[in-house]
Design brief:
single chain; alpha+beta; seven-stranded mixed beta sheet; two-stranded antiparallel sheet; 47% helix
Length: 431
């Protein structure tokens, strides 16, 4: 029977949805014979918890909605009696039937005080109480790894859908301009977390349509981006290239009435020189210069190797011997955008954009292509993916590493074990 431990209401939803309650010889709290024909479909929006359920009370079959609460009195506490969207509730499922429940017209709502094996509650409570990196790490060896593999697709779709909101919001800010929105998120990605914010501000300071007017001149593109970054204001004097850029920006600044980013926002400390924002800005300029209609090209590209080729750019020659303005490095170095950086851009910008664009434009082949790109990219090499590997769950592709990130950040960190394929199995175990 049930334990007195306080489990959240979502646990009751889990028990009901998975039909884990004792279903034999059911009676309503009024003593009427009850049979659950169908538990219904979970509602993730406002209104009753489950739609399209079917039950038999006595000789009568009822079709409608099911509402679930820990206590029957929650019905009144949540003002359901005065809410017309709850008038079609055919069954109130509760852990504790502490009062009679009625509709706005005074008619009573059939109520089931649901019971289930105590082991399920204990299993769930053990996960909630765990203090380990992931709640189930001492137990998940009991679950066939194939169960998690089968759950990756759902986790990956969930991760992409989570990113949809940000892209849709940015589209609204940019008046549904896909190219501008893509450019802003691409620029943000060139900051690779540490400089993401100033790169985004830079993209807004110099919109894509202005860069497009100068896409044939890498020098003017760099003048626009470096000038708007505020990094040309650091020193009064400098080498020849620095001075030429600043002079050119002086003209473009007035022409477009630009408002530069504050230079102090850029971070150089604790970064490898190849990741300095100066090098990244030059690489972004090269990408604009070499890839006219980049977003359109991405929509047309079906092959992952061809997609990577679009991003294989390098900073201008000045940066072969510099990492910062006016400070020559001791030796020449490569300034190409590396394979790992390209993969990161595809995973975090290109794939979500393809997915959202495919959804919004009803081009579902683009959504499938986005997932296919992830399958063909190597797994990410970050602390979370490494930790999963130490626990024996090794990602074989970016698709799986992204799924593992979603699992840890959204489900494990928030103890949403009931929505995890492994946690789901462990809770339902009677071993």
């Amino acid at each position: 029977m049930n334990t007195p431990k306080a489990v959240p209401e979502e646990f009751l939803h889990f028990i009901w949805e998975n039909h884990l309650f004792f279903a034999g010889n059911l009676l309503t709290v009024d003593g009427e014979v009850l049979e659950i024909v169908s538990t219904g479909r979970r509602n993730t929006n406002a209104g009753p918890d489950f739609f399209n359920a079917k039950i038999r009370i006595g000789e009568t079959i009822w079709a409608g909605n099911v509402e679930i609460h820990k206590n029957a009195s929650d019905w009144q506490r949540h003002n359901h009696a005065d809410d017309k969207s709850y008038e079609n509730v055919i069954l109130h499922v509760v852990e504790n039937a502490d009062r009679q429940v009625v509709r706005s017209d005074g008619s009573s709502v059939a109520t089931l005080e649901m019971k289930w094996p105590e082991q399920f509650t204990n299993n769930y409570q053990k996960l909630l109480d765990a203090q380990s990196w992931v709640a189930c790490q001492d137990q998940f060896h009991r679950v066939d790894p194939v169960i998690l593999q089968l759950g990756f697709n759902r986790l990956m779709i969930e991760r992409l859908e989570d990113k949809t909101g940000e892209i849709v919001w940015r589209l609204e800010q940019n008046h549904q301009n896909w190219n501008e929105t893509f450019y802003q998120m691409l620029a943000r990605m060139f900051g690779f977390k540490v400089n993401a914010t100033p790169f985004e501000l830079l993209a807004k300071a110099v919109p894509a349509n202005i860069l497009g007017k100068h896409k044939n001149s890498i020098f003017q593109l760099e003048a626009l981006l470096f000038g708007a970054s505020g990094l040309l204001n650091d020193e009064l004097l400098g080498d020849d290239y620095f001075v030429k850029l600043r002079n050119e920006f002086g003209f473009l600044y007035k022409k477009y009435d630009l408002k530069p980013v504050e230079a102090h926002l850029w971070k150089f400390m604790r970064l490898r020189p190849g990741n300095f924002p100066t090098v990244r800005i030059s690489q972004l300029a090269a990408l604009v210069h070499e890839s006219h209609g980049l977003f359109s090209k991405i929509l047309e590209t079906e092959n992952i190797d061809q997609l990577k080729t679009l991003f294989r750019v390098q900073a201008s020659s000045y940066w072969n011997t510099h990492f910062r303005f006016n400070k020559p490095s001791s030796r020449a170095h490569s300034t190409s955008l590396g394979e790992s950086s390209i993969n990161t851009i595809i995973i975090n910008v290109v794939v979500p954009f393809l997915f959202v664009y495919g959804e919004k434009q009803n081009q579902h082949h683009l959504k499938n292509r986005a997932l296919d790109f992830l399958e063909k990219l190597p797994p990410e090499n970050n602390s979370i993916v490494k930790r999963w590997g130490e626990l024996g769950i090794v990602a074989r592709s970016a698709f799986e590493s992204q799924a593992l990130l979603q699992l840890k950040n959204v489900h494990c960190n928030n103890k949403k074990c009931l929505t995890c394929p492994i946690g789901n199995k462990l809770v339902k175990s009677l071993d």
